[in-house]
Amino acid sequence: MTDVTGAPADVLHTLFHSDQGGHEQVVLCQDRATGLKAVIAIHSTALGPALGGTRFYPYASEAEAVADALNLARGMSYKNAMAGLDHGGGKAVIIGDPDIVKSEELLLAYGRFVASLGGRYVTACDVGTYVADMDVVARECRWTTGRSPENGGAGDSSVLTAFGVYQGMRASAQHLWGDPSLRGRLVGIAGVGKVGHHLVRHLREDGAEVVITDVREDAVRRILATHPDGGVTAVADTAALIRTEGLDIYAPCALGGALSDDTLPVLTAKVVCGAANNQLAHPGVEKDLADRGILYAPDYVVNAGGVIQVADELHGFDFERARAKAAKIYDTTLAIFARAKSDGIPPAAAADRIAEQRMAEARRSR
Ligand SMILES: NC(=O)c1ccc[n+]([C@@H]2O[C@H](COP(=O)([O-])OP(=O)(O)OC[C@H]3O[C@@H](n4cnc5c(N)ncnc54)[C@H](O)[C@@H]3O)[C@@H](O)[C@H]2O)c1
Q1: Is 91 one of the annotated active-site residues of the chain?
Q2: From the candidates 91, 102, 270, 325, which is the catalytic residue?
Q3: Which residue is closest in CA terms to ligand 1's atom 28?
Q4: By C-alpha distance, which of 150, 82, 90 is closest to 331?
Q5: Which domains does the chain have, with CATH numbers?
Q6: Which residues are annotated binding-site positions?
Q7: Helices 329-343 and 319-327, interaxial angle, to 10°?
Q8: Distance between Cα 6 and ligand 1 center (Å)
Q9: Which of 38, 88, 117, 226 is deepest in the core (most CB within 10 A)?
Q10: What CA–CA distance (Å, rounded) separates 302 from 284?
Q11: From CA 341, how far away is CA 93, in angstroms rounded?
């Protein structure tokens, strides 16, 4: 059974009745002149205006797009709460192949829809949208961030994302080995794109040895050429990377689902801390990690540097102020490990608990 939007009834059931739902508002947007079809999902404004990027993706169905928007918006509530931002969670998806349907007119039409929400939702870049696109959206909508520095924006958010992941690694080292320094540690990075290549630099500056892999040979070549001192080596693929002997930390920085029933048994690292979203392939993996004695720094906590960067832009971007806030990911990660220990739960569950507490307190104080 489907409703008039093509969204199956189970999506609406998720929205109104399940634990995964509870969203405040979902907006379906259409502009036939430009071909725009978008879904804006606002999960929570308990901590402030919902903040989250716009994903532009050729979804197999409109129902899949709605489900993705709901899921991503909910994730942003938790991420923003743990990042200490005064923002709730929201996300938008534009349905279609950006290479085919993206146009200036479509982005302007999208900007008008976001503007119509009057600041309840603040948008930014995500998969399929870029800084240049946000510059266009911003012409119609003042609640746009992730713009170019020439337009008063923070630019590429991967700079502070990598810095935040590095802080998460330092906290993991402190928790596990009693010293935040990564000197002499062996760190494996799967995916050396925008975030991964900055992460290599932080790690080398701290004296860590790094092993990398990427499906793109040019990405690997670029890193090896930038670090010719022998401190960075490459392996063929992620399967080889996670089996590397003596690996201290594994950093998934490519796609989601890196931690699964297949990868856990062969993982040699004692810590997992990386930028990729949704690293746990399914619920329960966080417990399997803990049972195997692997310390997991929750993905949405350590990769929040990017959202911290774009949130700062709303106050007139100040890189040093944003960097200082991203540095707090170190303390936040340590606090999660402490809570996990005291409550006897995995760190991922501890992070969720702390985020839910912060949102509940904000709701009560209203
Ligand atoms: N950029 C940000 O600010 C930011 C913020 C939060 C989370 N993230 C997440 O971090 C991850 C990396 O983001 P990015 O901006 O660096 O993306 P990116 O596309 O620039 O880099 C990803 C890299 O991973 C490589 N890759 C893809 N599949 C792979 C595989 N199977 N094995 C090895 N390498 C593979 C790609 O070739 C690419 O070089 C993504 O999951 C993203 O969602 C990014």
Answers
A1: yes
A2: 91
A3: 254
A4: 82
A5: 9-14+22-77+88-151 (3.40.50.10860), 158-304+331-356 (3.40.50.720)
A6: 191-196
A7: 20
A8: 31
A9: 88
A10: 20
A11: 37
Which of 6-10, 105-109, 358-362 has the highest average model confidence (pLDDT)?
A: 105-109
Distance in Å, CA 219 to ligand 1 centroid: 11
Distance (Å) from CA 192 to ligand 1 centroid: 7
Using the structure block, give the residue that is written with the tokens 């990075």.
189
pTM score:
0.93
Token code pair at residue 194: 């925008």
- Indicate whether residue 219 lines ligand 1 (CB < 6 A): yes
Neighbour tally for 228: CB within 10 Å: 8
The Cα 83–Cα 310 span in angstroms is 12
Residue 179, phi then psi, degrees to nearest 5: -155, 125
Residue 209 — left, alpha, or beta (φ > 0 → left; ψ -120 to 50 → alpha)? beta
Amino acid, res. 133: D
Helix, strand, or coil (residue 141): coil
What is the tens place of the pLDDT at every residue in 96-132? 999 999 999 999 999 999 999 999 999 999 989 999 9
Three-state SS at 143: coil
Name the β-bridge partners of 27. Answer: 40
329 lines ligand 1 (CB under 6 A): no
User: Does ligand 1 lie within 6 Å of residue 158's CB atom?
Assistant: yes
φ/ψ of 319, rounded to 5, equals -55, -45
